[in-house]
Amino acid sequence: MRDLVSKIHITMASTIPLLTPYKMGKINLSHRVVLAPMTRNRSYGNTPQPHAILYYSQRATEGGLLITEATGVSDTAQGYPETPGIWTKDQVEAWKPIVNAVHEKGGIIFCQIWHVGRVSNYEFQPNGEAPLSSTDKGITPGVAGGAWSPPRKLRSDEIPALVNDFRLAARNAIDAGFDGVEIHGANGYIIEQFLKDQVNDRTDEYGGTLENRCRFALEIVEAVANEIGGDRVGIRLSTFANYMECEDSNPEALGLYMANALNKYEILYLHVIEPRMVEADTLYDTPYSTLPMKKAFKGTFISSGGYKRDDAINAVADSKTDLVAFGRLFLANPDLPKRFEIGAGLNKYDRNTFYTQDPKLGYTDYAFLEV
Ligand SMILES: Cc1cc2nc3c(=O)[nH]c(=O)nc-3n(C[C@H](O)[C@H](O)[C@H](O)COP(=O)(O)O)c2cc1C
């Protein structure tokens, strides 16, 4: 009888669009609720820790997609305390049990690979050097609470080495067992520092025209796709946002150019932050939409930013997106897909512990539904 009840329950749940299966390339997802990438600052010494095994496996479901916190591609990639990397052998080894735990629950896990560029300071850089960027212009100190150091503009002949760091990080991610990587091209970090015209002031082939500003991002996509196969590569963009003073004068044109250009590399997904998330915490009314990007891009589309259960259901039902990634709600509700399935109430997130270093508090101690 119990079996029958649970089968009926599953059949009923599949009528909620957000909880219906979806085939993403070769990967069979059983629902469309994705864990958005979230930095949690608990990877001491840039090395993933055993407590992350519990954190990610708590959020894993059979056929559910998780994207990890942003993970550094090199020793110049960091700008925040205790964030993980994937450029050393030890880091690769440390990721393995985390990935295994997610796989044991039937989950799928992609590693978000990043380089912060100018969102950093001397303290995080090897030998206290200047952070690297597309520009010499720094972020106004105090923005987002940071003590940002003035960056150094990369010479054109240094750029291939950075592209190569992303390639190697992707290879390492596959060696660690990840199902794929998400290239972090969003939120004001190095790729955006090249993409957006209010930051990129270069006069070489990486600056100026739209084509030139997108060159760095696309070289990374190409290198990573050649290394591990396009069907294991996603990219995240926040064309419409202005985090970390990273803004573009024509975000629609930039978004559309990237969506079209990405098709050449046949990558798996494009993950876009909703225009309403102009800033990290507040939702705004904007005239923009991600729909033209979704229509242009041939792979899977993931949308994120400010979603709740109902608008996520509608977005999938109206074909505005294929999958929806949830950040804060998933952080605070390890069983979020289940809660959405039965329309249960949600735990509230505690902002004070988003970025603290405790291995448990505000990390793995959010309650599950009692069943
Ligand atoms: C604690 C925290 C850490 C985050 N870290 C990352 C990150 O590492 N990479 C990234 O692309 N976005 C990061 N984000 C942004 C989220 O992925 C997401 O876009 C944002 O929270 C908005 O979605 P939400 O309204 O569902 O929370 C972070 C957000 C939070 C709250």
From TrEMBL:
Keywords: Flavoprotein, FMN, NADP, Oxidoreductase. Transmembrane segments: none annotated. The keyword Nucleotide-binding does not apply. GO terms for molecular function: FMN binding; oxidoreductase activity. Residues 18-343 form the NADH:flavin oxidoreductase/NADH oxidase N-terminal domain. Its cofactor is FMN. It holds the Pfam family Oxidored_FMN. Belongs to the NADH:flavin oxidoreductase/NADH oxidase family. PANTHER family: 12-OXOPHYTODIENOATE REDUCTASE 2, NADH OXIDOREDUCTASE-RELATED. This is NADH:flavin oxidoreductase/NADH oxidase N-terminal domain-containing protein. It comes from Lactuca sativa (Garden lettuce).
